Amino acid sequence: MADDEISKRLASRLKEARQSRSLSLEALAKLSGVSKSMLSQIERGGSSPTVASMWNLTKALDIDFSGLLDGSPNERSPIREVIRAEQTPVIMSHGKGCMIRILSAPKSVGETEVYDLEFEANASLNSEPHRSGCMENLTVISGTLEVTTDGVTEIISKGDTIRYVADRPHSIQAKKRKARAILIVTGS
Fold it and tell me: Average pLDDT of 120-132?
């Protein structure tokens, strides 16, 4: 395949993948970290993306690079993606006492987000209000957690699930020992 043909196919497939997911250039820019103007240039065939940009775009669009060149992005294996533990994005480190691993796909941001939370003993995660109508669903895998939202506190232990409003200040704190939980954030 000639370089010009590869660039044209790549531009066409990226645009098709973005549009099939009903994403605007601005939304894809936010999800991928690639600027809106660069995305526009890539889709027009006016610029070739760097390897780093391609990696961010394929992750944000939930497609593999070979799918962009070989076949339609929609012609995928039934296994969409495997993310090994060491590759899972982390938003906070143990240095803060709480590690947050992102389990949901980038395209889920703002809809349904899934996180794996690990707390050191007595560590807490304090959050500002999320978007209006946002709810959090927390299931404790190990340890005990204290959840506070809008001044109301509940203690939950292994196997317990709590659902609470998250469009106001809220916090999750480990009690006396390490704890782990799965957090699902949904919004309106």
Answer: 91
